[in-house]
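#data-curation
PF: Archiving a pair of folding outputs for the training set. Convention for this channel: one message per protein, sequence first, structure tokens after, nothing in between. First:
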Amino acid sequence: PILYSYFRSSCSWRVRIALALKGISYDLVPVNLIKDGGQQFSGEFKALNPMQQVPALKIDGITLSQSLAIINYLEETHPNPRLLPQDAKKRAQVRMIADHIASGIQPLQNLSVLKQMGEKKMEWAQKCITSGFQALEQILQHTAGRYCVGDEVSMADLCLVPQVANAERFKVDMGPYPTITRINKALLELEAFKISHPSRQPDTPAELRA
């Protein structure tokens, strides 16, 4: 497999965690979203992913984009350890939380949107993340065990950790979100989350390395 990734992309991080958890080794091709006006806009990368976004994963003779589609494919082809619970209700909760983050928070504060916001980008990102986290904190109070849904790591957790990192980068006050904070801390102790961390990627700038 070949993963096209950017060290700081939260969507790429989700996929890196999934690959690490499932023990799938891969080659990483960095796509710098800032350098050269954004390497994702090159003709070469557009041919690979017409949406001009990371991540993209070449695997088993196909190229997949969209982090949750990639994670679902890895789940179906490498079922262990599972990232979707066997119980239908819990599985629905995992998908709900993953979608809440992947559709309801992250796209509103991603690089392409922030570019449009100009000087107000920090304020905008904080507003989007805060409103999403207020809802998420409430949801997690009903679903969480050690992790987002019960005590097993799931696709929801793969979305949570990168989004908390975004919140910290945009200086969101995490005080009102004790459940999110607790789960995030527990997940960051797991090896798969450590090795996939933005501070430990081949394309991480020296000053941001762990």
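PF: Second:
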Amino acid sequence: MAKRVAVVLAGCGVFDGSEVHEASAVLVHLSREGAQAEVYAPNIPQMHVVDHVKGQPTPEQRNVLVESARIARGNIKDLAKLDVKGLDALIIPGGFGVAKNLSTWATQGKNCSISKEVEDVLRAFHAAHKPIGLCCISPVLAAKIFPGCEVTVGHDTECEQWPYAKTAEAMKELGCRHVNSQVTEVHVDARNGLVTTSAFMCNAPIHHIHDGVGKMVREVLRLA
């Protein structure tokens, strides 16, 4: 019987939503492994809308569920309707929408709050001992909610290849253990059922990102 995996999106676009290539890679690898993806997003306004050509905010207003539906080809459900009992695992791709729409990490860092719906879903999967896959910036959600957990966002020393390495230091301040890894690698925290990989936290060729996400998906399904 095909494993059913909830994929939670945060909009559409790297700077104000879910990172499209990461979300697509998750869906492709789930399909390849014979799993059934069920896509969800919260029905809330985006924090803001970014013009991806100029890299600057615009005065537009958009809805996270409506924008996420672009990636899901319309086959999407309101996160409020997610029922953990019928699902085997949870995966949350990255993108700044995780730090802006699913949480306030973008503006408050380690002092952020997590959207109640998102926190409830993460806690439900954790309590049910069902695996959670997180990539790019989304491991910050676990770092905030599950003290002492082990995650990776790549490296903790900032350089041209790892421009967001300060994220690892902020996560350590929350009491979690950060494990340095390469972009094609994952870290598995078996005690907490977490599988994490750095994805676009690294300046890497897109096929390396795709490969790392694929390894995350396979490990999540192995644990499911």
